[in-house]
Amino acid sequence: MTGPPTPPPSSAVEIEDAARTVLPPPNAGAPPADAPAPAPAIAQPISEDAQPPIFNQIPQNTMYELLFRSISELARSGSLRELVDVAERGDLTGDFQTDPSRLLLIAPLVLAYMILDELPPARHALTRLPESLASFPLSHGLFQLLASTTERKYSDIYRQADELRQFVLQPAFGNAELSQILAGMITSFITAFRKKTFDLLSRAYTSIPLPLAQWYLGYPAEQVEEFLNVALSHHWRYDEQSKILTPSVQPKSSARNFTYAQSTLNALNLVADSVATLES
């Protein structure tokens, strides 16, 4: 007989807080322990409207367009801390704050913060946008994904991330380079989010039913074999007869498994060079 997940008998405040505040209780939208994992929700398009062009059709060499070259390189190299520095300073010094090209900085900036699990500054970056830019389908998709992540709506997070990735990859999006950068960052976000969720589950539960674990980690029922392979790679044990997973607590890591070049000076130099180019 399959029972509900069993929290470990621990007095560690951190683990208890994680179980209470970060992981919602099993009955808060999750499937019953003995029920199959729910079918994924049918993805709805972010918007029926076409994405307005973000790059100016006639190049204006705005601050945002000039800095996007550096943003693109930093995103490809995984230098997210430096990307954040460059994008924040560029956005705060840009003159054309209602220009659509501003999203060349804001969209990668928001995703970089989300990969780093720094949600308040991600929200602050989005709420700085004027209404004319906040109404873009890209902005709307980022707002939705950020809200679900903040509220830990697990099934919505994976669905909305997939919708947003499909949206930026469609030909109508308008810019191939930005499309590839954002699609890659969305994938990185899901990878980082799943890793954190694995770690939290490992510390919060001594055992967890297979359907519930799949719900937390965004694997539908038809991906059970893929999920089990991933779970085993995290040193979890699986009892096929009871369909119960036993997490394995891993040593705490002092880093988020990312290596960044934290060079504020480089960020300042990039912004200064862009300003000089605009003024020349």
Automatic annotation (TrEMBL):
Signal peptide: none
TM region positions: none
Domain CSN8/PSMD8/EIF3K: 106-251
InterPro entries assigned to the protein according to its UniProt record, in alphabetical order: CSN8_PSD8_EIF3K (IPR033464)
Compositionally biased intervals (Pro residues): 1-10, 23-39
Annotated segments matching region Disordered: 1-40
The organism's place on the tree of life at top rank: Eukaryota
Name this protein carries in UniProt: CSN8/PSMD8/EIF3K domain-containing protein
Species of the source: Trametes coccinea (strain BRFM310)
